[in-house]
Every structure is written in structure tokens, then in C-alpha cells.
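Whiteboard transcription, Tuesday session. T.W. wrote the C-alpha cells on the left side:
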């Protein structure tokens, strides 16, 4: 039996491309495709967080001939990184809040890493800590304000103020907030945090301690004597230093000296546009522009001007030294009328009449009718040595210093309708239409009188020798005429 041997014959084949050799009975192998690294990831984006950033991307269209097994994310600077397998997101951690990073993504297969993607910028972070925290204490509350910090690339949505002790809080989208339900007499400190879409940042340093209470003390110096609030600002004239100091009526914060008045400034009146200061030692009135604090005019008046009152149209000045009242026209800053009044010690205009306390043992109040030729139309007997007067809402309130009482006069009839005992040696007096506030100079107190009942409803201990007082309907401001140079703020 013969064994048949299988053979393969190589036959030449001619073609247009030249001679090829085919192995008869043998299949031709498939064409070989080389495997490479993947293509570059695309559409890289970043979502910053608190010291972190979530990075997202789209897989490359070309996997290089081998399935993608993962991704590598790298930052520059700092070479922070994270990796992912089949997902197309990972989170960078331990970033420095507020620092900018360039982020690239590479794809990986069995051959290796792709080229880096186009870099995207990311700045991690929650806001920085607020700064310049200032606290103004009130009655069972504290108003806190601060300077906004850098938001690290995401708008701040809210701030949170926290007290210590007690952890009382308030939140706001602005840079001021009032923490309430505090305990009067307890010192508190406060921190502030800022929050954005990425989270809440670090707390500010603790504020200086403040103590809530119904009376707060503000240092101005120079024996403050005259004081006036226009509702937004409080103006204080210091008798010995000649300085006029401005306070923020909302917070009680001192804004510092804004101008110099004349010699021995004793009384102040503010009408919202200008501040008028009676300088008893120089026989002048200083006009100060409220907006820019410039001294606009210095107006010569009578001798020893001790009291002043502006009604927005005219300024009325009590010249104790020569027994007159001067009328200054606001628009021209000139004296347009002078009225004789005996021993004028205090003055208040209600826009219709001017009321003048005539000091001395036989105390009286003179009523001057406002007209082109103002004249005294009534003289009303009051108590011994009236030194303060305030006209509001149809009533005129007079503090009789030696009689230690306050009298209410009905402005329409020019008659006394009530006599109210108060503290020792009442001088300054101010009505806000609801209550009447009386500075008892010898007692270091302020009496609060309910205007509707003509009864004392409260007494507040303030600084030594309270003299001038001004009530604006929200707060009561008291100039304490002593070496400590303070203003007391009463928060009813």
C-alpha cells in the first residue's frame, strides 16, 4: 500500500500589481492592526467644593485598539491628583481654598496613558472668613457688622452670626445682622461665617466683648454739653474742646470729630441738612453741612448764645447775655430778626411758634409767634429756674431745675396742664411725641415721661452730670457734662 503525500504547490499569479505567490490549500492571515494609547478625553469641566473639586469629562472616541481601563486627573501646580476606572468623574481633595489650579485628564489602556486633555482652571473653595467684625450692643440685642471676604469664585449666599456664650444666631445676605434674645448685663463675643454654593467657610476671629443693656456708653471727650439727633446721625458739641463729633444713630458708633465749632459750644440743633451750633463764649453760631462736615458759615449773634433750635426754615438762638432771641434765615445764614426776651436759657421751635424758657426764680415761658416780624404773644408762669424746653405735637414740656419737676403746656391755649415730679436738678429735655426724656443733672439719671398720661414710667442711670438730651423716636442720646466725656445711648 502506497502512502499518499500531501503537498502544497506554490503557483505564480500575475496581476496588474506584479507577481504574487499563493499557497494553495492555505488561508491568508488577517491584516495586523497595531494597539496604541487612547485618544485624549474631551469636555473636561470642574465643580469646585470646600478644599476640593469634582472633575468630569467625556471619554475619547478612540480607545487605541484596547479598552480603556481608567483615567488619571492631575493638577498644576501642586500635582494633586485622583483616578477613576469606568466612571468619568473623580474628586480632587486637599486643595487650598482660593488657589487656582490647572486640571488635565488622561485616559489609560493596556499600552499606557493618553496625552493630556485641554487644561481647565478651577479655584476650590468656600468663602474666606469675614473680617473687621464690629458689634454695637443694644437692649437684649447686639447689632453686628463686618467686611465681606473673598468668595473664592462662588457668590456668597448668606452669613451666619453666632454669639458666645449662648450660641444665639442670626443670618443675613447683607453684611449686618442683629442677634436678639440676649441677656442684659452678660458680656458677649461674636463670630461670623460666610456660605456659598460650595459650603461654609471658616469663622471670623471673635469680636471684642460687648454687654447688652438699655444704656450704652460712647466716649467723645471734651465735656460734651449739646447734643442733637436727626434720626440718621447724632451730633455732639464738646464744650471745652470745641469739637463736634458725629455718631451713627443706628449703631451708636462714633464716627469721630467732624468739625471745630466756635468758643465754648453749648447747644446743637440738626435739621437733616445742616447742623447749627451755638457758641456761648464767642457770640456766634457755626453752620456745618451734614453731608461733608464743612463749616459753611459762622454767624455773629447776640451775647452768650446758650440754646439753639432749627425748624428747617429758620434757626432760633437764645442770647442769654443780652436778653434776646435771634432769628437766622437758613437759606441766607443771616440774622433777620431779634426779639427781646428776659433771661432766655432754652428754646424750641415747632414751626408755628417759638417757645423760650426764661430762667430765674420767677420762671416763665415766652411764646413767640413766627411771622415776618416775630413777637412775644404770651408769657406763661412755670416753675423755679426753667432750664430746658421741648415743643412737640401740640405740647410744650419745660424742666424746672430748682423745682425738680416738668410742666406740660398746651400749645393751643398757652396754659399749664400738668406738673410731673422728676429727678434732681432737671436741665435738658426732649420730646419724641410719644415720650418725654428729662436729664436730671445732679442725680445722673434720665426720667422717661409718657406723653399721653404725663406720668414718669421709667428712670435710667446714665453718666455723671447729664445735661443735653435728644430723642429721635428710636434712641435717646444724652450728653454727660463731665471729665469722662461720654454720651449715654438709651435704648427703650
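and on the right, the sequence the group agreed on:
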Amino acid at each position: 500500500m502506497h502512502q499518499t503525500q500531501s503537498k502544497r504547490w506554490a503557483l505564480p499569479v500575475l496581476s496588474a500589481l506584479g507577481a504574487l505567490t499563493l499557497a494553495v490549500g492555505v488561508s491568508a492571515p488577517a491584516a495586523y492592526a497595531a494597539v496604541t494609547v487612547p485618544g485624549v478625553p474631551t469636555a473636561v469641566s470642574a465643580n469646585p467644593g470646600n478644599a476640593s473639586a469634582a472633575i468630569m469629562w467625556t471619554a475619547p472616541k478612540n480607545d487605541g485598539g484596547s479598552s480603556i481601563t481608567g483615567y488619571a486627573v492631575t493638577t498644576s501646580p501642586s500635582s494633586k491628583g485622583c483616578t477613576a476606572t469606568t466612571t468619568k468623574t473623580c474628586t480632587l481633595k486637599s486643595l487650598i481654598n482660593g488657589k487656582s489650579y490647572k486640571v488635565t485628564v488622561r485616559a489609560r489602556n493596556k499600552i499606557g496613558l493618553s496625552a493630556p486633555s485641554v487644561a481647565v482652571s478651577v479655584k476650590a473653595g468656600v468663602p474666606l472668613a469675614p473680617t473687621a467684625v464690629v458689634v454695637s450692643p443694644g437692649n437684649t440685642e447686639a447689632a453686628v457688622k463686618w467686611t465681606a471676604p473673598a468668595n473664592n469664585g462662588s457668590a456668597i449666599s448668606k452669613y451666619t452670626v453666632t454669639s458666645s456664650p449662648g450660641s444665639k444666631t442670626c443670618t443675613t445676605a447683607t453684611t449686618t445682622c442683629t442677634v436678639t434674645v440676649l441677656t442684659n448685663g452678660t458680656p458677649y463675643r461674636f463670630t461670623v461665617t460666610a456660605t456659598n454654593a460650595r459650603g461654609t467657610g471658616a469663622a471670623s476671629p471673635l469680636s471684642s466683648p460687648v454687654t447688652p443693656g438699655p444704656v450704652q456708653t460712647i466716649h467723645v471727650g471734651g465735656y460734651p454739653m449739646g447734643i442733637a439727633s436727626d434720626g440718621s446721625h447724632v451730633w455732639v458739641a464738646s464744650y471745652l474742646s470745641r469739637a463736634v463729633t458725629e455718631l451713627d444713630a443706628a449703631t451708636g458708633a462714633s464716627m469721630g470729630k467732624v468739625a471745630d465749632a466756635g468758643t465754648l459750644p453749648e447747644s446743637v440743633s440738626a435739621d437733616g441738612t445742616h447742623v447749627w451750633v451755638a457758641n456761648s463764649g464767642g457770640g456766634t453760631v457755626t453752620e456745618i453741612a451734614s453731608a461733608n462736615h464743612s463749616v459753611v458759615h459762622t454767624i455773629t449773634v447776640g451775647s452768650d448764645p446758650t440754646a439753639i433750635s432749627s425748624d428747617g426754615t429758620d434757626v432760633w438762638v437764645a442770647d442769654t447775655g443780652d436778653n434776646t432771641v435771634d432769628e437766622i434765615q437758613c437759606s441766607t445764614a443771616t440774622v433777620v430778626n431779634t426779639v427781646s426776651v428776659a433771661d432766655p436759657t432754652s428754646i424750641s421751635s415747632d414751626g408755628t411758634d417759638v417757645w423760650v424758657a426764661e430762667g430765674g426764680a420767677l420762671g416763665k415761658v415766652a411764646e413767640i409767634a413766627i411771622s415776618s416780624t416775630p413777637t412775644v404773644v404770651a408769657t406763661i408762669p412755670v416753675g423755679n429756674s426753667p432750664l430746658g424746653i421741648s415743643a412737640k405735637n401740640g405740647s410744650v414740656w419745660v424742666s424746672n431745675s430748682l423745682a425738680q419737676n416738668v410742666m406740660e403746656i398746651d400749645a393751643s391755649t398757652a396754659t399749664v396742664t400738668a406738673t410731673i415730679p422728676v429727678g434732681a436738678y432737671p436741665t435738658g429735655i426732649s420730646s419724641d411725641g410719644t415720650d418725654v426724656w428729662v436729664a436730671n443733672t445732679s442725680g445722673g439719671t434720665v426720667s422717661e415721661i409718657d406723653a399721653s398720661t404725663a406720668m414718669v414710667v421709667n428712670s435710667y442711670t446714665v453718666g455723671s452730670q447729664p445735661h443735653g438730651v435728644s430723642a429721635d423716636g428710636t434712641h435717646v442720646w444724652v450728653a454727660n457734662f463731665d471729665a469722662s466725656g461720654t454720651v449715654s445711648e438709651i435704648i427703650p
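Someone added at the bottom: The CA atoms of residues 156 and 196 lie 4 Å apart.
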